[in-house]
Amino acid sequence: MFREFYLGFIKIHILYHASKESIYGSAIIEELNSHGYDLSPGTVYPYLHRLEEKGYLKSEEEVVEGKVRRYYTITDKGKELLEDIKPRIKELVEEVLYEKREKMKTDEHGK
After folding, report:
1. Is 1 helix (H, G, I), strand (E, B) or coil?
2. Assuming Cys at both sites, which of 21, 38, 40, 56 could form a disulfide with 51, CB separation 3.0 to 4.6 Å?
3. Model's pTM, two decimal places?
4. Domains of the chain (ranges plus CATH)?
């Protein structure tokens, strides 16, 4: 079950980073690894492809140092999804991380 939640976070990270600049597979793996994820190409590339198939990302190929590299950018559909997700993330983070604080406030007021 942990893996299912974990993979959802990865998709959000991918959309977020693709909204800031064009991304490519190995660079997004490095970026996500810097956040503590331990990802392989076998995990990330299928997500990039699925997000593109569903219309959230688009890609273009570019030759870099003699090799073809596929760059992904977010689409309008992907931007809409990301904007729809943001308030839900905020609410979830506040609820999960600040639950104790809210419980303390409730206890103080006798509710």
Report:
1. coil
2. 56
3. 0.80
4. 2-108 (1.10.10.10)
